[in-house]
Automatic annotation (TrEMBL):
This is Acyltransferase family protein. GO terms for molecular function: acyltransferase activity. PANTHER family: BLR4337 PROTEIN, GLUCANS BIOSYNTHESIS PROTEIN C. The chain crosses the membrane at residues 12-34, 54-73, 85-105, 147-167, 179-200, 220-238, 250-268, 274-297, 317-335, 341-360.
Length: 397
């Protein structure tokens, strides 16, 4: 089967967007985050909102696509063991050794943690509750912060693996075939309906807290798009239709967002239930249409062996694990220096990119660190003359 370069490229670009988004969280007004700059911008809310509504849905959809390809020719048990290793080890390592700078900086900024990172770590590794509001996750004694995605993805992977007999049954294959056969407006409308229904039924009862056990609204949305990704797979007809509709979806998505934004801006916060349901339905339609536009354009433009893609495919996981801790650490250092509204975000972004690049170059060269950042072990080279006569020469790393 031909490699799907567009999916690899889209994964890399989605996580690049995540880095930019988290850098911008320092500066967007009225949105809480671990640290906040004095250079806040209200205007930044609107482009952030435009991206916020689908950014994680896209990442979970790509994850579902990856599961589709990884399951080819692999037994369910072996697949689950491999995925657990590649998700839970980086999650555990990251929580213990990468993330702690974030609660430390937040706790010091909030005046509830004493300065001194060494002393903080000695207290942090006791996993006991902290003073209320010290940092996100204070009540548990530790936090996974941006690594929550790995925990959620592991749970969805376990659930999907358990559902494989059902998904591969006659009824499951009929449902998958029904999705793959959607064309035109049906493709743009019908998959959005479950997202709207879940919002109407669950959002009033479950706030987006990042609590794995009680986050049922986001679980319903994210697992649905994760399942969509698994079902999309490599169906040539469906991908051709997404590509054919790419101009239509690129036009429609901004219009839906404009309508959604107009309702948010013009209506009071307390509206009748019917109006709130309309707002959530518009949001769901925007999310799905935006995803269709992204998938269609990426398939058209990126499904080729781009020269930067092999490096980026390997770099995605370490950069994801590292980036937010670097953002918070750099901001913690430079906010007291009172750089200007242009220099400060430039330093944060440039420092984050440079730090991710340097640390990734170290990680990829250290065998013990590679699995801690989600990288596979390097294949050992076979010395010349010891391998089979017909074996090709190994490619350079």
């Amino acid at each position: 089967m031909q490699r799907r370069y567009d999916i690899d490229a889209l994964r890399a670009l989605a996580f690049c967007l995540l880095i930019l988004y988290h850098c911008a969280m320092l500066y967007v007004a009225d949105w809480g985050w671990h640290l906040k700059s004095p250079h806040l911008s209200e205007g930044l809310q609107w482009p952030m909102l435009l991206v916020n509504r689908w950014r994680m849905d896209l990442i979970f959809l790509i994850s579902g696509l990856s599961v589709h390809f990884l399951l080819r020719g692999t037994g369910a048990g072996r697949f689950l063991a491999q995925r657990s290793w590649r998700l839970l080890l980086p999650l555990t390592f990251g929580c213990l050794f990468v993330v702690p700078i974030q609660p430390y900086a937040q706790g010091v900024a909030n005046g509830l943690v004493e300065p001194g990172f060494g002393a903080f770590l000695l207290r942090y590794y006791q996993f006991k509750p902290w003073p209320q509001g010290a940092f996100d996750g204070w009540q548990y004694g530790f936090t996974w912060n941006h690594l929550w995605y790995l925990a959620y993805l592991w749970v969805y992977t376990v659930v999907l693996t358990a559902l494989l007999p059902l998904l591969r049954s006659r009824a499951g294959l009929r449902l998958q075939g029904a999705l793959a056969s959607l064309r035109g407006w049906a493709l743009l409308v019908l998959p959005a309906l479950p997202l709207a229904l879940f919002s109407i039924l669950l959002q009033p009862h479950f706030a987006d807290t990042g609590d794995l056990i009680h986050d049922w609204h986001r679980h319903a949305i994210y697992f649905t798009v994760f399942l969509y990704g698994y079902w999309l797979g490599n169906d040539a007809g469906l991908w051709a239709e997404l590509t054919r509709l790419r101009r239509r979806t690129l036009t429609l998505a901004p219009l839906l967002f404009a309508a959604y934004l107009a309702l948010l801006k013009l209506l009071p916060e307390d509206v009748p239930d019917a109006v709130q349901y309309l707002i959530w339905t518009l949001r769901s339609a925007y999310i799905w249409t935006a995803l269709c536009a992204i998938l269609g354009w990426s398939h058209q433009l990126l499904n080729r062996p781009l020269h930067w893609l092999p490096w980026a495919t390997e770099a995605v996981y370490p950069w994801y694990v590292l980036h937010q801790s670097l953002i918070v650490m750099i901001a913690y250092w430079i906010l007291p220096l009172k750089f200007g509204a242009v220099a400060e975000p430039a330093i944060v972004l440039a420092g984050t990119v440079a730090g991710c690049f340097v640390l990734h170059e170290i990680v990829r060269r250290v065998p013990l660190l590679r699995p801690c950042f989600g990288l596979k072990a390097r294949k050992r080279r076979v010395p010349a003359g010891l391998g089979p006569a017909s074996a090709p020469a190994p490619k350079p790393a």
